[in-house]
Amino acid sequence: MTQFRVCTVVAQYYVDKHEWPSSKAELKQQWREMVDAEKGTPETMESSEFLDQFTILELRKKGQNLMMHYSFKGDKKTIDQRLTLRPGATSDQIIHEASD
To answer: What count of Cα atoms within 13 Å lies in the side-chain half-sphere of residue 70?
Structure first.
């Protein structure tokens, strides 16, 4: 869920602004906007500081793509992932076309 959610925040940032985020601060702002849009749901209320759980959250543009590296502690293990995100018309399309 955490992996999908961070990809959703990045993809939605691209859809909303037609550019990739370049910092964790930009993602935090995007996350706040997404939480505000869904006011009061139990999931958003408990996850208002969602991005703080990442020990690594690196974003680097490469051509039109975004190289993303993140790490966080999950259920008794550390998740470390690198993805390439490509521009798309919707966040679902961006996430579906992401690759390791």
So the answer is: 23
DSSP assignment of 5-55, as one string? HHHHHHHHHHHHHSS---SHHHHHHHHHHHHHHTTT-HHHHHTTTGGGGEE
Q: What is the pLDDT of residues 60-88, one digit of tens each?
A: 999 999 999 999 987 889 999 999 999 99
- Between CA 98 and CA 100 the distance in angstroms is 7
Q: For residue 84, what are the β-bridge partners?
A: 67, 99
For residue 9, give every residue at least 6 positions away whose Cβ sits within 8 Å of its Cβ, in sequence order, or none.
27, 30, 31, 34, 51
Using DSSP, state whether 57 is helix, strand or coil: strand
d(CA 71, CA 69): 7
44-47 long-range contacts (CB < 8 A, ≥24 apart) are 47/5
pTM for this model (two decimals): 0.87
